[in-house]
Write a structure and sequence with these properties.
Layout: E1 6-9, H1 15-26, E2 30-35, E3 44-47, H2 53-67, E4 72-75, H3 90-118, E5 121-126, H4 129-133, H5 139-159, E6 164-171, H6 184-192, H7 202-212, E7 224-227
Parallel strand pairs: 1-2, 1-4, 2-3, 4-5, 5-6, 6-7
Length: 235
């Protein structure tokens, strides 16, 4: 029987986070998800704004009480606030970076405490193809997602000797609420640039994250794994 783990997925109430949480729960893991509002059927749902240190601490305490120390962290919660550079406010830039990057620091630091004691852990960060290739009008989002690469690889070097891996998954265009606002013209432009000729499903992203959470993925560390239908071609 595969070992079951205590898992925390941030932004687990929809999209990639929800698909990943359900995939891991389906494998028998004890899964908690964070959400800023609303319950997720069948999963322990913790109200948490990842930009709040107090909320993050409270979420970990609740997850630990219910499922034991967190062994797998999926840092998925993220936002966009797209604007061209000259129209982008500093407040907007900081808010995106705080949610997408600084929050991952908070989460990983808290999770690593028990992982170090157990000498086993999985730190998983959801980045984006945009973080590797850049995108006009998405300077804040791309910067935050690119930052996850350097952050995760630093943790891989720092914690790898203690049985803890740290990896990044970089999805391309996925059918989620975040991409639903694209105009038809922009969607056609995007599809034309993807060798697969289609967007990804959330389950395809979740499958890669689920593998990285396993014992079998113990020698995958410091990786950036694109799941983008060939859009980035290894950027």
């Amino acid at each position: 029987m595969p070992t079951t783990r205590s898992v925390l997925v941030t932004g687990g109430n929809r999209g990639i986070g929800l698909a990943t949480a359900r995939a891991l729960a389906g494998q028998g893991h004890r899964v908690a998800v964070t959400s800023r509002g609303g319950e997720v059927d069948g999963l322990l749902t913790l109200k948490c704004d990842v930009t709040s240190p107090a909320d993050v601490e409270n979420a970990f305490v609740q997850a630990e009480q219910a499922h034991g120390p967190v062994e797998v962290l999926v840092s998925n919660a993220g936002i966009t606030d797209d604007q061209l550079l000259l129209r982008m406010s500093e407040e907007s830039f900081v808010r995106v970076v705080d949610t997408n990057l600084t929050a991952s620091f908070r989460l990983a630091k808290r999770a690593s405490r028990s992982m170090l004691r157990a000498r086993w852990g999985r730190l998983l960060f959801v980045s984006s193809v945009v973080g590797l290739s850049g995108s006009a009008g998405q300077a804040s989002y791309a910067a935050s997602k690119a930052g996850l690469v350097g952050f995760s690889r630093s943790l891989a070097r720092e914690l790898g000797g203690r049985g803890i891996t740290s990896n990044v998954v970089a999805p391309g265009f996925v059918d989620t609420d975040m991409t639903a606002d694209l105009t038809d013209a922009r969607r056609e432009q995007v599809l034309a640039s993807i060798p697969a000729g289609r967007t990804a499903t959330v389950d395809e992203i979740a499958a890669v994250l689920s593998f990285l959470a396993t014992d079998e993925a113990g020698y995958v560390n410091g990786a950036v794994i694109p799941v983008d239908g060939g859009l980035g071609m290894g950027h």
